[in-house]
TrEMBL record:
This is Aminopeptidase N. The keyword Metal-binding applies. Its EC number is 3.4.11.2. InterPro entries: Aminopeptidase_N-like_N (IPR045357), Aminopeptidase_N-like_N_sf (IPR042097), PepN_Ig-like_sf (IPR038438), Peptidase_M1 (IPR001930), Peptidase_M1_dom (IPR014782), Peptidase_M1_pepN (IPR012779), Peptidase_M1_pepN_C (IPR024601), Peptidase_M1_pepN_C_sf (IPR037144). PANTHER family: PUROMYCIN-SENSITIVE AMINOPEPTIDASE (PTHR46322). Its cofactor is Zn(2+). It comes from the Bacteria.
Length: 876
């Protein structure tokens, strides 16, 4: 495919005034009639042709102002429709009819049919698989949609906006008409038809309008949509209270489908969801599932303003809607749950997913300047780093300043297709500030490294911090400018209180935020009576790597005494990481691993501290992961040595004081009816964290088997099964539990996905054979994206030792899978392939095998542009 550049953006020559679509649905021969009214844009070239996008389209008729179009005036190929000799200024009407085959659409882009349900996915460029269209986000129009379908198999006919009416249509068919008064780009179009159950509710908006809420699920699963409905109502309320945003249609619908390439999609008034993010009850869903549902329901709902009312001018601006909307869903979840615990989870995720992306061959700016395949830019950089950039704006401007900027953004750009510059300008104008240096965060890829050293002068009562920033080179960007890095901080004294400097020089410090803006800065704090311990980058105010050699005792001090709970977790993490890195190095060299008393004792003290919330203590107990250690090591990685070292440290902690873990395990069992709230989830998380340590000190599966047998909810059940499978893969107790789990949930696809994931992440050399055997299971279904992700995706992304086997068999297996999946579902294939994004950081034997596997993929015949784009960037 050809490379698209941001710099080449230009407006369309024609303005689309309105769209009327009529669908005659049929599993293999669906007829789509699109009536499009255009006029030439003022000032546009009067001879320019109209060029519409298509993708695998078959056109059966073309009318110009209701009359058959002269063949000499157009060219139609499956990829485009070009029409010439069009009026200079007056409006004209094009009616184009296409025939499409929803059953054969295994890409799950455009209109497809899975499990008897017709459904669409149009973002980013799926609408062009339905009809010829100016399929780009800056073309906004009002849509009317007529749907005609078989009444028995499709009693339900849905599209965006408000329902206009429906009736019988003869021959067992019926029709429904929908009208969406809000101009929208084609990527927000949706159609759903089928036979589904519904859960209904209402929401009264802040101005007193009643909105009908409907969640459609498979018949019989209605009770499992209750939590999603509750989350939706809380989201609607929160967006009114916090962002002043009210819903704007009479109806809001969510449809849950089981075959979906992603999490969910924010189509106007008609969100389509992967059912994994809708369906829950205590028997089938873990606390994590509930938290995900809450976050994704909120995210898609929040898009109604950040994405739909204000959309993106072009796909380079994707973070305008995604980064901002992730920020909004993060804030929502923080308000619904424990803010500090939520932040810890976000930072863990950012570091384990985004930091590696930013450090490898797929690194790109939050706002890229070029792409070959836009589907490959729905990345953790655009989403999660994009959210962090928005968070930094809020940190720099403060709560009120941020709110003023957001209000101006909605006021100025409602109905627009906007850019990042438009967005940033609103914050500048509303606050009278200059954010030009800050804007580098959108344009420079790579995680900044901030190196810090400190000195204390007792005589002068002065404390100095020397800071230096370095932004590593990334593909296409070798030289970087210094950025504006806002670092929240505190100066902790020995008694746990905070020092209040009488003066600060060398940097702009506002409140508790230090603004690092130069390449090198030395900051002096005066009036400090005794040596303070710096708690830096509190709340992870900037998404950077810090190199700050703080003494273990200082980190332990922060971990035990900081007033900021997040900072306590971060200090614990900083305390653990060097020990784990050293352990990995020793294991690699075949030397005995050194453990750390300070680390173990600090961890255990926090775990046992009943004054702290259990969810926080559970997070504290989770040592940095194998991939965290790999990232810290940076290069020449041996995943086996990393695991061996980490296991030794973990065993040391487990055996330090097993009585503490036993007490936590016994004391935090949730009794009575299950509720998915954050507090119950915290108790379960702490109990299950303790169980994982106890399995190590016990050395036998008995306790986990007992926990499995007595679990009365999916969180405890799957946690016990994970401990059994990962710690005692060959024990008869494990085989028995896995079989009991399979038998009990065989007819529940979402739970069987867990059964596959738990087994695909069992560490060690046997993993690949296990995964291959599971692929032969009658429960495996390679046509279902959730199932493929659960088994193949989870193996490649989350089983470092199993996947990165020294003989390269894991990579060869993945290459075969990618080549098999790609012709059917390129997006799924490309996404799973990104699991190899850190291959260059592996030691030589493994990286050679990985390169060969990537080359085998690159040599594949008829690769999709999705996979070839990823594999070529990875090999570059
Ligand atoms: N906007 C969609 C993602 C679409 C992905 C297209 N490949 C879901 C979301 O971010 O809310
Ligand atoms: Zn989104």
């Amino acid at each position: 495919g050809r490379i698209i550049h941001l710099a080449d953006y230009r407006q369309t020559d024609f303005v689309l005034e309105r769209v009327d679509l009529t669908f005659e649905l049929d599993p293999t021969e669906t007829k789509v009639e699109a009536r499009l009214i255009f006029h030439r844009r003022e000032g546009a070239d009067p001879s320019a042709p109209l060029v519409l996008d298509g993708d695998e389209l078959v056109m059966t008729s073309l009318l110009f102002d209701q009359m058959e179009m002269d063949k000499a005036r157009y060219d139609a190929t499956p990829e485009s429709l070009t029409i010439r000799d069009l009026p200079a200024s007056e409006p004209f009407e094009i009616t184009v009819t296409t025939m499409i085959n929803p059953e054969a659409n295994t890409q799950l882009m455009g209109l497809y049919r899975a499990n008897g349900v017709y459904c669409t996915q149009c973002e980013a460029e799926g609408f062009r698989r339905i009809t010829y269209f100016p399929d780009r986000p800056d073309v906004l129009a009002v849509y009317t949609v007529n749907i005609i379908a078989d009444k028995a198999s499709c009693p339900l006919l849905l599209s965006n906006g408000n329902f206009l009416g429906g009736a019988g249509y003869g021959e067992g068919k019926h029709f429904a008409a929908w009208f969406d008064p809000h101009p929208k780009p084609s990527y927000l179009f949706a159609l759903v038809a089928g036979d589904l159950g519904v859960v209904e509710d209402t929401f009264t908006t802040m101005s007193g309008r009643e909105v009908a809420l409907k969640i459609y699920v498979e018949h019989g699963k209605e009770p499992r949509a209750a939590y999603a409905m509750d989350a939706l109502k809380r989201s609607m309320k929160w967006d009114e209270e916090v962002f002043g945003r009210e819903y704007d249609l009479d109806i809001f619908m969510i449809v849950a489908v089981s075959d979906f390439n992603m999490g969910a999609m924010e189509n106007k008034g008609l969100n389509v969801f992967n059912d994994k993010y809708v369906l829950a009850d205590p028997e089938i869903a873990t606390d994590q599932d509930y938290a995900n549902i809450e976050a994704i329901i909120a995210h898609e709902y929040f898009h109604n303003w950040t994405g739909n009312r204000v959309t993106c001018r072009d796909w380079f601006q994707l973070c305008l809607k995604e980064g901002l909307t992730v920020y909004r869903d993060h804030e929502f979840s923080a308000d619904q749950r424990s803010r500090a615990v939520k932040r810890i989870a976000e930072v863990r995720h950012l570091k384990s997913e985004q930091f590696p992306e930013d450090a490898g061959p797929l690194a790109h700016p939050v706002r890229p300047t070029k792409y070959r395949e836009i589907n490959n830019f729905y990345t953790t950089t655009v989403y999660e780093k994009g959210s962090e950039v928005t968070r930094m704006i809020a940190t720099i401007l403060g709560k009120d300043g941020f709110k003023k900027g957001m209000d101006l953004y909605f006021e100025r750009h409602d109905g627009d297709a906007a850019t990042i510059e438009d967005f940033v300008k609103c914050f500048e104008d509303a606050n009278g500030v200059d954010l030009s240096q800050f804007s580098l965060w959108y344009n420079q890829a790579g995680t900044p490294l901030v190196s810090v050293s400190s000195a204390y002068d007792q005589g002068k009562g002065e404390f100095t911090l020397s800071l230096e920033q370095m932004i590593p080179p990334t593909p296409g960007q070798s030289v970087k400018e210094p950025m504006h890095i806002p670092l929240r901080f505190g100066l902790l004294l020995t008694d746990g209180s905070e020092a209040n400097p009488t003066a600060v020089s060398g940097a702009d410090v506002t409140g508790d935020v230090l603004h690092l803006t130069e390449r090198r800065q030395t900051v002096t704090f005066s009036g400090i009576a005794s040596r303070p311990v710096v708690s830096l980058n509190r709340g992870f105010s900037a998404p950077v790597n810090l190199h700050f050699e703080q003494a273990a005792a200082d980190l332990a001090h922060i971990a035990r005494h900081d007033g900021d709970l997040f900072a306590r977790w971060q200090a614990l993490n900083d305390l653990a990481l060097p020990t784990l890195v050293d352990a990995a190095r020793k294991a690699r060299a075949g030397e005995p691993v050194e453990t750390s008393d300070v680390l173990a004792d600090t961890l255990i003290a926090i775990a046992a501290d009943e004054s702290l919330e259990p969810a926080f203590r559970a997070q504290a107990l989770a040592l940095p992961s194998e991939s965290d250690i790999a990232r810290e090591l940076g290069s020449n990685n041996d995943p086996d040595a990393i695991r061996t070292g980490r296991e030794a440290v973990l065993a040391f902690v487990a055996n330090r004081d097993p009585a503490v873990f036993a007490a936590l395990f016994a004391g935090h069992r949730t009794e009575g009816a299950f509720t998915p709230d954050a507090s119950g989830a915290g108790h379960r998380a702490l109990r299950n964290a303790a169980l994982a340590y106890l399995a190590v000190s016990d050395g036998t599966p008995a306790r986990a088997a007992e926990a499995f047998a007595s679990a009365d909810n999916m969180t405890d059940l799957s946690a016990a099964l994970t401990v059994l499978a990962h710690r005692f893969p060959d024990a008869p107790e494990t085989a028995k539990a896995l079989e009991a789990f399979r038998a009990r949930f065989a007819d529940n696809a979402l739970v069987i996905d867990k059964w596959f994931s738990i087994q695909s992440t069992i560490p060690g050399d046997g993993a690949l054979e296990r995964v291959k055997a599971l692929m032969e299971s009658p429960l495996f279904n390679k046509a279902n994206p959730n199932r493929v992700r659960a088994l193949v995706g989870t193996f490649a992304f989350s089983n470092p030792t199993g996947f990165n086997r020294a003989d390269g068999a894991g990579y060869r297996f993945l290459a075969d899978q990618i080549l098999e999946i790609d012709p059917k579902n390129p997006q799924l294939a490309a996404r799973i392939l990104t699991s190899m994004r850190s291959w260059r950081a592996l030691e030589e034997v493994r990286s050679d095998h990985a390169r060969n596997a990537l080359r085998a993929i690159a040599a594949g015949e008829k690769l999709s542009s999705d996979v070839s784009d990823i594999v070529e960037r990875m090999l570059k």
